[in-house]
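Lab meeting minutes (informal)
Scribe: AK
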Amino acid sequence: MPAILIVDDLISIHEMLEAVIQPTGYATAFATDGEKALTRYKAEKFDLVLADIDMKPMDGITLLKHLKQYDPSCVVIIMTAYASTESAIQALKFGAFDYLQKPFRVDELIQTLKRGVEFKRLVTEREARAGAPAGVAAGDFEARLVGSSPKMTRLVAQLRKLATAHTPVLITGELGSGHEIAAELLHQAGAPAGSPLVGIDCKLNSADVLHEGLVGPSGTGGPWVEQARGGTLLLQHVQCLAPAAQEELVSVLRSHSHQHRVVCTTEIDLEKLTEEGGFNEELFYRIAALPVHLPPLRERLEDLPLLIKSVAATTSNPGFDARQIEFTDDALATLRAYRWPGNLAEFTQVISQAISTAEARVITSAQLPLRVHELKDWPTLADYLAGQEKRYLARVLHATGGDKTKAAQILGIDAARL
């Protein structure tokens, strides 16, 4: 029988909640303040904590923080008497499963508790599968998230840990950093084998299509939400949702969060956008409970040799085995000097092109596309106008590996000037 710990400083609330909750088949226990609740939670086993926000000496938010620190998988629902949602959003920020505003309806209370208990069951099941994740071999994380740099090592370790959770994950990072790969690994490692991964691109779909698929005509969840039941709902470029859709999605997630895992991706600073009023605050804290940041390629340049081998293994060349390809020191230096605005996606395209069109097994800097011959400290136009023309031209020439023709093409001048 699921057990619920009710925390409120009013005995009358205890009595009322007991009368309402016990007939549903849940066992209830009580504490009159946060400190007593924390002590009891550590001593006994509870599936859910239902806590009032306004208590002394330890309020509900402080209790929530302590509970999450002691047991990250604990499910906490906060009760608040405030008319505004400010305190409720504060609770979501620190990991609350949901909130209830007093006075609440009995049916709303029971449905919220049922969702919380079911969420706890799913979390427990995922944790039990942690030793043998479904559908993901031991080396799949390293094979798809290539790199041995400290940042990539930490990323892989973080994703492995988060795979067993049922809590929403927000994957951030610059465009082309591997958002979809990370989301797929989270799904494959954490969800039951054969469960659905429903991916929705919020940038490509129109507002009407998104409303129909996510919200539905009744406003309680569209066909995409139902399709993701038991698996993962992936919202790509979530910052592109219209304000109305963001607000509607809050209600959908409140109703269906226990039925599937929500993973969202964005290439912008969504927290900053939220603080500036450009994104729904409650939605942000509902989807950003577990943030994962993908490092840009320029911050893990030591991974380039491994990434080259990985790309070569999936690239063909009509003249020889692409896996035997070698990049000269000057080519590697050029690749490291480039800032890679398109990150991993751009790198893969550049290396694939270089390998597939190479006429020999050795690739030099001159064989790389012109755009990668960009220096990090490229001289400014002000330098050029200030009379440092020779310095400017010399750097461009160096960036192209001494190829005057290519340098002249970049500068748009006659090669004779070089």
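Next up, CB showed the second protein from the same session:
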Amino acid sequence: MPTFKYKAKNNLGKIVEGTIDANAESGVAVALRQKRLELISASPAGGLTSLLSALTRKGGKVTTKDIVVFSRQFSTMVNAGLPILQGLTIVAEQAENPDFRVVMNKVRDDISNGVPLSEAMAKFPKVFNTLYVNMVKAGEQGGILDVIFERLSEYMEKAEGVSRKVKSAMMYPIVVMSVAVLVVIFLMVKVVPTFRDVFASFGAKLPAPTQFLIDVSDFLASKKSFIIVVFLVAVWFAVSMYRKTKAGAYNWDMMILKIPIFGILARKAAVAKFARTLGTLIKSGVPIMDALETVAKTSGNLVLEKAVSNARDSVSEGKTLTQPLKESKVFPPMVTQMINVGEETGALDAMLNKIADFYEAEVDAAVEGLTSIIEPILIVFLGVTIGFIVVAMFMPMFSIGNVVG
């Protein structure tokens, strides 16, 4: 069925634009009348519009911020008694992201045709993930959509905050080290050769540090250095291909959790996300089996996913959630003990949210501590490296000065 781009007028006289699927232009007018819209003009949606629609079906460029803003706005509208269809129309009209606007128009069109909200959102898995869809489905069944969307916005803001802090903590040393390496390469390729020509005119034997730097500089400037570049690219390609395999992806995620310092930070962030996600799902009325399946799919770490999947199998057999989590050795003892208490007291959702609060605070403290440790280490590294180059370059001049004296 072709897609048409339309311009119409609503019952308040406001101009509304969007896209709709219809067999012909006359079908557009009929479909819009059902939505209480008067057609002004319609044309086949081709070129850029079709491309945009195709992108948004796969997720497009919709950001977490777009979804958080939508969740808060829609929660307020539903709480105020606004019909879902009208609320989606308002959200679609005022959405700043054109990709997200297309998604909202599609969701609204499906709902106007009798499709449940959760099913309409499930058609855009890259925009609304499994967790989001399952919670919306629970909200529809329980008649608490406004509460669900409020919880979703809070959950996404906290999860995004933890993820952003972990990424910044890991990216900071990588960026600084990259800049330091580029500066050193520049000195070795552009500056050291100038001194080499000067020293060659002296005809004297150079000190070992100076000769070492000149040899490294000559190597970097020669075609032989291309071999190193090719080797590094080959290693990067091999690692990338290995990570695409099931075993490779699992081993990579396991290695991330075992890296000194950064692994501890990644583990705390993973535990915080697990606890926050599972606690939010259970509190929203999602069955425990569905909740564990969703947590496993959205964990972002295959080691954690396997541990949660094993826990789900254990629960399906009538066993506790605690034992398989303890056996996985991914979760700290405090976490499994608190989950055990939550299971025994029937307050698992509240206990999980307390765990999430604790570990999110731990991530904050770890990021601050890591930053305070890394900064002086990087400064010392840069100082020693640059200092060695400077001293090595001036050592022959000191020797010449002594000879002249």
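CB comment: The chain has 17 helices and three strands.
No objections, moving on.
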